[in-house]
Amino acid sequence: MKYLTGSCLCGNVKIRVADQFHFVGYCHCSECRKWSGSAFAAGGLVGAENFEIVSGEELVSCYHNSEETDLCFCGTCGASLFSKKLKLGSYIVRLGILDDAPTQRPNVHIFTASKAPWFELTDQLAKFEQLP
Ligand SMILES: [Zn+2]
Ligand SMILES: [Zn+2]
């Protein structure tokens, strides 16, 4: 199995994740927009067995957003790192924190019904108003 490394802006938190996501896509939901501060978030879903915090675990803070989701970030630099899907026992890694390029490319836009009105989707990827 090939692994990818990721890190926060200040470099204190490092993660390792298998280069094999169940899902890789762009999410336009209001949660991702608020949390990323951007038009959408690029994320990859992995099982807990394929996700590891290699260093800086004590610096990782999580915001309990709902009974389904904890949003975890670096308490030092504030970088969004990953969300913990509490019911699935899996993680959605923010692809922007990866230091390596994943083999898979995002191939779908989800929750386009709540996308930012000022952002225009111009690519040919599959689009779903909510989940596929
Ligand atoms: Zn940091
Ligand atoms: Zn989202």
UniProtKB/TrEMBL annotation:
Pfam families: GFA (PF04828). Coiled coil: none annotated. Keywords: Lyase, Metal-binding, Zinc. Residues 4-119 form the CENP-V/GFA domain. PROSITE patterns: CENP_V_GFA. Transmembrane segments: none annotated. The keyword Glycosyltransferase does not apply. Belongs to the Gfa family. This is GFA family protein. It comes from Novilysobacter erysipheiresistens.
